[in-house]
Every structure is written in C-alpha cells, then in structure tokens.
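Re: the request from the purification team.
They wanted to know what the chain is likely to look like in 3D before they choose a buffer screen. I agreed to run a prediction and write the result into the notebook, where they can find it.
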Amino acid sequence: MKYAVYFAMISGLTLLLSGTIINVDAIGTPTDITLSVSSSRIQLNDTVVFSGSLVNSNTGDGIWGKPVTIYREGPIIPIAIASLTTGLDGKFDTEWIATLDKNEDTKITIFVQFDGDDVSLPSRTGKKTITIELIPLELVITTDMDKNRYQLGDKALFSVAFSDGTVNFVDPDFIRVTYDGKFVEAKNVDVGRYTFETPYLVKFAQHQFGVFAEKWGFSSTQKSITITTFGVENYEPIKVTASKQGDDIKIRVKNNELSPDNIHTFKGTLRGGEPIVGAGENWQFSVDPTTNSFTFKTLEGNLSPGESVVFNVKTTGPIYENSWTSSMKLIWKGFDLYGNEHSTIGDVTGSGATVVKSIRGVSTIPSSIYTQVVKTGVEVDKSSYTVGETVSIRGGIPKVVEGVPVVIQVFNPRNVLYSIDQVIPVADGSYSSIANIGGKLGITGTYTVKAIYSGQSAETTFELR
C-alpha cells in the first residue's frame, strides 16, 4: 500500500515517524515512495526480495541517486536492515535472508523511508507484515519389518528419521530417546537417521520407545511406538547356586545372557540362619538383623548380562551348626539401577542333597500397603514457581529396601521427560530431591513429578509461570 507524505516548509520542524526522525527543514520537491515484498509468508533462511521506487509526487517521474533505508520495527525503535540508492528510474531492490530471534512463528513489520535532502522532501511507505513460520520437523519411527509383536528372546530394532517434510533429511539440534521410561542413546547412522536396538526381550510385556527432538527454525516434535513380547515362558534374569563350604555359604550368581538389565544390588534373606559377615569383590556387604537379610551393593561397575559373581556369607544358627535341610530357604533378589526387581525363579541348590529353595515373586513390600502410602508419598514445597526457581521435592515410602533408590522423574507440560534423579531413602522411609526448571524444555505450564520405588509410583504436580 502506498503512503505519501507531503511536507510544507516549516523552519526548524522535525517529524517523528515510528521512532525514526525525519528532517524536513529542506525546501524541495515532494516525493512518493513505494515498497513491494516478494512473499509475506516465509521460513527461516528464505530469501525475500524488497523492491520499490522513489518518484516525484507531482510528475510521477523516478528520482535517481537517492539513499533509501528499509526498516524493521523493533521493540523500541525501528532497526535498519538495508540501505540502498535509487537507480536511474528511481527504482531500488535488495534481498534479505530471514532470521529468528526466538524459535517460534514470528511476525515482522517492514517499511522504507527516504529522509530527504536539499532538493527533495522526505517520504515513507506504509507498513507491510511478513510472517516467518517454523518448518514442521517430520518424525517417523519404524521397527524392523514394521513388526509390533516379538517373541521372547528376540531383539527389536527401532529406526528413526527426521526430515523437513520434503526429501531432505535433517539432524535435530537436540534429541531425547527413551525406552520403557529410561533415557537411552540412539546411534546416528546417517544425516537425520538413527537406530536403537533393544536388549533381549525376556518378559511378557509391552515396551514403549519414544523420541523428542528440537531444531532451530523447526517446530519441536515427539512420537512413541509400542511393541508387545509374547512366547511360551519368561526368561529369568538371575541364576543362583549356593553351597556350604566350612563356615561360609558360597553363593554364585549369574545374570542371564538374555537379561535386559545390569544388576547393581542384590538382597538375600536366610531362613534358618543369621548372616554376620559377607564378602564379594567390588561389592559392599551390609546386614539387617531384624529380617535376617543381607545386601550386596556394587562399588564399581555392575553385573552385566552373561556375567557371574561369587559371594561368601558367614552365618550363625542352624545353617552354620548343622547340615542343610530341604526346609531351609534363601530368598534372593536383584535390582537394577532404577530399583526394578528381578527375583530368582526355580531352585537354588546347595551341596550334595541339600536344597535351598527360592520363593517365587516374593515382594518385600505388600502392594496394598505400598499403594496406600505412596499415593501421598511425593510432594513439592509450593504449588507454583518461576523459571530458574528451585523446586524442592520430598516424600516417603512404607518400607526401605537397603540400597534401592527412589527414582524421581519430572515431566514438562508437553509430557516430555525433563529431568530424572535417584535418591536413597533414609531409615524412616523419607527422601528428598531438588529440580531447577529452565532451558529449552523449561516451558511454562503444569509439570508432573513422579516418584518410583520397587515398581510402584506416586505423582504430584506444580505450575511454572
């Protein structure tokens, strides 16, 4: 739209237009200036052509050799983005590459101004609006042969591809990948393409694979896919054999080659004896005399799938004093880094005819009690926070399993996992943690805090302003 400004001669007068001062002291020819934009809807790094002409308002003839400036409206005053000189016919044109100050759809306002000189009076165009739109970041997740059902003992291969919606693959600036709620690392195999192979699938279960990604100039994206495992029977992750050698009970533990997890903590409970001393290379031993239980917690590394470890435990009581009998029992559990339990299934055998039986699926915490307590077992110190403020998280569990951490997850308003922490509860079952919300994922809205302990969970929420 054209907009001509005509000035009369007024001594010492200045005109303020949108924060830009135009000097109109000069006596001269009135002018008219126009502006055209090649496109009003563009994307980051697109090229826009600005063109126009400066003419004599009375005759319509082009005025050559005059400086004109293209401005972009700023938060306080206009910002010059190009300075040009008109040609012989009074015309001008230039190219501008679209940029963004924030990674969001942005509208900018453009106008062109001639400041005038001793011969010609100043003029300015009306305003034109250009919208810089984010490019949709296309995300595709597939499995090998597009399967969604796998047999026990299989591995699943997920393939991830990012594109700009055409034939061009693009790498995101930030990518977060999860498998069954845990952060995992995907392998970058080519531009915009990633793969992730699961551990062996060893349980009847559904497994969820999810991806969240961001890239400057693109809208953020997230997607998940679920697969199901089926078969004849579950593979059991832990195999245990035990025998009495002198004053010791020798316990050999092997993590199954098909196990999906590394084991970080073992907990054993003796029926018919009291543990007093234990040893295992790079494993810390502790005893809970109230339950006749003992714990081995890794000091360095972990027990990976296919690996074995030997523990020696000295005891008092019938196991120490007499030969073992079929009534004596050893309850044995392993826990991964997130506190998920892997119980021994089948017999744990001792020397000769001695048998120490395991108890299948024994839980150290009754589920009904746990659900009742954990339902209110996590809370934050305030209902709302500002960006950068520290969120204090606290809660309690009904019964402590030594060495098993409480996993605390914080999800942002888009249900994207923002942070994760692990804390060991104190003896009375209480625990605490903190979170600081900020950065690209620290958007305003309602956040969810989830506390997970031994397979059970509790939730609470807070607002970020």
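For the purification team: The mean pLDDT is 78.
Please add any questions underneath this entry.
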